[in-house]
């Protein structure tokens, strides 16, 4: 029995896919892998392969829509869905035969009860046979009146039930959010089957880190999941004392670290990393002259010479690197950056290669959304997938170089948006639109890059604005998608607050606004809060969104 793997284009999905591929290899299962970037590709892939395959595995796609309605599969087709998108569509939950959901048992899904949403149709239509028995006309009339009353009561109950159902479903589907990372769910599966390897564990770590880097889960959830993975790490990576000298060149070791939240700093210079990490650049307000001064003061406070800070991290003096994290943390506290360190993991390949989990996330993401065309659409996906294997360090380094370019582009765009006041308050939300011809605008037609940009921009805006009300608003960001077709891509992200639960209401709001204005939109992304629409429909769409959310 061959299996068809349909994998979404995000790092967590890639990691889950790597774990599953390794498991399939253990059990000699034959499979075909098809990357899908959106609903249209998913449907096309299904239609092309539905005759050859009976088993489909969907990774990070498919849980939040009614699969059977969209794909119209045959009775003997089975779907295994491992998807971190929430809420899960209720039909998928209650369909036991064709759809199997892979979710962690302790995930709180808050699914409405079966009887509140589904109702058997047959008990509606009985009692309507007309009775032609020869009983008295009077009795007939009385029975008829009783029936009318009973039917009216039934109809009223039905109406009440339907109103309640709408309300329950609205509450359930109103917000979009993310559950446990799919790579972690896959790793759990491997662990239950006693087939978990250190490589799989590393992929699970990268999958979780992807959710954290993309800001999809709460700090609380991240720390909890790190704790779960830490137990596995100590189980896989403990060594006896006498083995200390027998480290082979190609061995791989995972270690828990309390590391700096600076993007790619071990593969860059400390200065570049401080400038291009959203956390530090927003806190220092680096787009202003004042902010640049503060950065210089910060470096002086640590007592690090500029020459050292600006050269490659690898070539910095060993004496400085020894307790660099402590030095940085101490100075950061004085400058109001309380949480510059974060719990994470790093990996060592042999003696000289060391990467932290977030390095891998940035590198893989930029390989996947690389805008320099090289062959067909799927090449980027395959490259990104390959960069996760430890044999392909050259691909990983290529990814790291691309990631630096991407982070620089994001930071420069954020600075220009703030300096030219492009972020405007529309009432219920903030709005920012990138114009055609802005530098790097092509990069931001890609969903993950646009989301990262929006999140960085909102963080920076919240730090720069004096307006208390604006600090609590969500952001809608638009960028040109395809100039020839005249489309823009739009993303909505929730407010940037300390206690944010990362739940996003824009998916539903976008749908409603598009419906009410007949805007020509395309909901092709697996994230409901990303939408494509025709440029000339943009203003009426935004007006509808404003009145909807006011």
Automatic annotation (TrEMBL):
<dbReference type="GO" id="GO:0003688">
    <property type="term" value="F:DNA replication origin binding"/>
</dbReference>
<keyword id="KW-0235">DNA replication</keyword>
<dbReference type="GO" id="GO:0031261">
    <property type="term" value="C:DNA replication preinitiation complex"/>
</dbReference>
<keyword id="KW-0539">Nucleus</keyword>
<protein>
    <submittedName>
        <fullName>CDC45 protein</fullName>
    </submittedName>
</protein>
<dbReference type="GO" id="GO:0006270">
    <property type="term" value="P:DNA replication initiation"/>
</dbReference>
<keyword id="KW-0131">Cell cycle</keyword>
<dbReference type="GO" id="GO:0000727">
    <property type="term" value="P:double-strand break repair via break-induced replication"/>
</dbReference>
<dbReference type="Pfam" id="PF02724">
    <property type="entry name" value="CDC45"/>
</dbReference>
<feature type="region of interest" description="Disordered">
    <location>
        <begin position="120"/>
        <end position="141"/>
    </location>
</feature>
<dbReference type="GO" id="GO:0003682">
    <property type="term" value="F:chromatin binding"/>
</dbReference>
<comment type="similarity">
    <text>Belongs to the CDC45 family.</text>
</comment>
<dbReference type="GO" id="GO:1902977">
    <property type="term" value="P:mitotic DNA replication preinitiation complex assembly"/>
</dbReference>
<dbReference type="InterPro" id="IPR003874">
    <property type="entry name" value="CDC45"/>
</dbReference>
<dbReference type="GO" id="GO:0003697">
    <property type="term" value="F:single-stranded DNA binding"/>
</dbReference>
<feature type="compositionally biased region" description="Acidic residues">
    <location>
        <begin position="120"/>
        <end position="136"/>
    </location>
</feature>
């Amino acid at each position: 029995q061959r299996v068809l793997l349909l994998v979404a284009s995000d790092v967590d999905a890639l990691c889950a896919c790597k774990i599953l591929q390794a498991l399939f290899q253990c059990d000699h299962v034959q499979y075909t892998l098809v990357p899908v970037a959106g609903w249209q590709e998913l449907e096309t892939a299904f239609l092309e392969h539905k005759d050859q395959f009976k088993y489909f595995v969907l990774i990070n796609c498919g849980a939040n829509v009614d699969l059977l309605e969209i794909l119209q599969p045959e009775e003997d087709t089975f779907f295994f869905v491992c998807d971190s998108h929430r809420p899960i569509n209720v039909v998928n939950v209650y369909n036991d035969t064709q759809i199997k959901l892979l979710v962690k048992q302790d995930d709180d899904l808050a699914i409405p009860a079966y009887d509140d949403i589904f109702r058997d149709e047959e008990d509606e239509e009985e009692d309507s046979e007309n009775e032609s028995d020869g009983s008295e006309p009077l009795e007939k009339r009385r029975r008829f009146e009783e029936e009318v009353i009973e039917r009216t009561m039934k109809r009223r109950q039905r109406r009440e039930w339907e109103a309640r159902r709408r309300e329950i479903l609205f509450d359930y589907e109103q917000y979009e959010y993310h559950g446990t990372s799919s790579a972690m769910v896959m790793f759990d599966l491997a662990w239950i089957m006693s087939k978990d390897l250190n490589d799989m564990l590393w992929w699970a770590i990268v999958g979780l880190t992807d959710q954290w880097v993309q800001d999809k889960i709460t700090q609380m959830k991240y720390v909890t999941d790190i704790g779960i993975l830490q137990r596995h790490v100590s189980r896989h990576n403990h060594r006896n004392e006498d083995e200390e000298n027998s480290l082979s060149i190609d061995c791989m070791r995972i270690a828990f670290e309390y590391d700096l939240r600076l993007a790619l700093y071990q593969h860059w210079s400390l200065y570049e990393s401080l400038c291009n990490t959203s956390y530090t650049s927003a806190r220092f307000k680096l787009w202003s002259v004042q902010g640049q001064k503060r950065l210089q003061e910060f470096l002086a406070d640590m007592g690090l010479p500029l020459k050292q800070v600006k050269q490659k991290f690898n070539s910095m003096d060993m004496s400085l690197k020894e307790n660099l994290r402590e030095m940085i943390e101490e100075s950061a506290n004085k400058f109001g950056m309380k949480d510059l360190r974060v719990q994470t993991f790093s990996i060592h390949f042999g003696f000289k290669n060391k990467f932290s989990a977030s390095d891998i996330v940035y590198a893989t993401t930029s390989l996947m959304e690389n805008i320099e065309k090289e062959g067909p659409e799927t090449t980027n996906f395959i490259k990104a997938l390959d960069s996760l294997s430890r044999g392909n360090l050259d691909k990983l380094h290529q990814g790291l170089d691309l990631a630096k370019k991407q982070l620089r582009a994001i930071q420069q765009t954020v600075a220009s948006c703030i300096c030219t006041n492009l972020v405007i308050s529309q009432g219920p939300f903030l709005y920012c639109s990138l114009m055609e011809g802005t530098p790097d605008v092509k990069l931001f037609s890609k969903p993950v890059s646009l989301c990262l940009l929006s999140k960085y921009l909102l963080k920076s805006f919240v730090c720069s604005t004096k307006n208390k009300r604006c600090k609590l608003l969500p952001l809608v960001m638009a960028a040109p998608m395809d100039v020839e077709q005249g489309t823009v891509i739009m993303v909505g992200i929730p407010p940037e607050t300390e206690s944010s639960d990362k739940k996003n209401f824009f998916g539903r709001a976008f749908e409603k606004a598009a419906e009410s204005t007949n805007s020509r939109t395309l909901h092709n992304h697996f994230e409901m809060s990303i939408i494509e629409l025709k440029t000339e429909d943009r203003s009426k769409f935004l007006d509808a969104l404003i009145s909807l959310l006011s």
